[in-house]
Amino acid sequence: MPKALCLISLVASILILVLFLADAAMGMLGMTDMAPLRSANMLMDITFVIIGGIMVYLSWSTYREQR
Fold this sequence. Notes:
Layout: H1 2-28, H2 42-65
Helix pairs in contact: 1-2
């Protein structure tokens, strides 16, 4: 069960990372109409990209310890 929880948190954190990274990139390129969150706030995008990266690292390292 702990391995499944680690994998679920890994997938969720990758989704958060990709979503906010795409929103920030499209906002910087001027494609706000196509951005997933309409590039509402760049500070929010950057914060969630950093937090998503930290969550990916923590989930992956915890999963590796469980083997």
